[in-house]
Design brief:
Structural class of chain A: mainly beta
Number of helices of chain B: 0
Number of helices of chain A: 0
Strand content of chain B: over 45%
Shape of chain B: globular
Distance between the termini of chain A: 34 Å
Radius of gyration of chain B: 13 Å
Distance between the termini of chain B: 40 Å
Oligomer: heterodimer
Largest sheet of chain B: 6 strands, mixed
Order of helices and strands of chain B: EEEEEEEEEEE
Structural class of chain B: mainly beta
Largest sheet of chain A: 7 strands, mixed
Number of strands of chain A: 11
Chain lengths: ~110, ~110
């Protein structure tokens, strides 16, 4: 069964509003979670590394004030897209790792900004 | 920046045919993973290879890690429609966590 749950699976919002996406590790504690973005016909691009109890580490070119990441517990990380615009429309995916083991991915969130 | 190139990017074959997809880089990776992704879903791990020259088999899928740990291949024997999907390779350095993904090979197996 799924070990990483992502919610919502789809969301449509109006330009200028904010959207929160949740990523939960279901049966293990994840000290580190990762957030990716995937455009059509492109691969997963790492946006940021979410560390429990500390600030996220963002990849070059990713606006930390626009993509707010909170990792308040060992089983939950959230990504908030603030003041969303149509160009933010994309497929957002999170992943979590049980220590030094391969990543488990959530099922992704399809964000459409109108 | 470590880059992973996958080829071909698109592949459409008839059921029963064999195929090989490739993942190449100029960088050395400590591990390489292969994932399969269905539309609208997250990637699902198929295999991890860590040793140069390593070969792993998963039913009809055979994965090989290059001797220099810069490249990998995935061979599917007697492809079935259920094999349809996007196959992604991902290279890791110093552990599994922070990995670089290739662009993927979109496979379609026609019944």
């Amino acid at each position: 069964g799924a070990v990483v749950s992502q919610h919502p699976s789809r969301v449509i919002c109006k330009s200028g509003t904010s959207v929160k996406i949740e990523c939960r590790s279901l049966d293990f504690q994840a000290t580190t979670m990762f957030w990716y973005r995937q455009f059509p016909k492109q691969s997963l691009m790492l946006m940021a590394t979410s560390n429990e109890g500390s600030k996220a580490t963002y990849e070059q070119g990713v606006e930390k004030d626009k993509f707010l990441i909170n990792h308040a517990s060992l089983t939950l990380s959230t990504l908030t897209v603030t003041s969303a615009h149509p160009e933010d429309s994309s497929f957002y995916i999170c992943s979590a790792s049980r220590g030094n083991s391969p990543l488990h991915f959530g099922n992704g969130t399809r964000l459409t900004v109108t | 920046t470590q880059l992973l190139e996958q080829s071909p990017q698109f592949l459409s074959i008839q059921e029963g045919e064999n195929l090989t997809v490739y993942c190449n880089s100029s960088s050395v990776f400590s591990s390489l993973q292969w994932y399969r992704q269905e539309p609208g879903e997250g990637p699902v791990l198929l295999v991890t290879v860590v040793t140069g020259g390593e070969v792993k088999k998963l039913k009809r899928l055979t994965f090989q890690f290059g001797d220099a740990r810069k490249d990998s291949s995935l061979h599917i024997t007697a492809a079935q429609p259920g094999d349809t999907g996007l196959y992604l390779c991902a290279g890791g350095s110093g552990g599994y966590q922070k990995v670089t993904f290739g662009i993927g090979t979109k496979l379609q197996v026609i019944p």
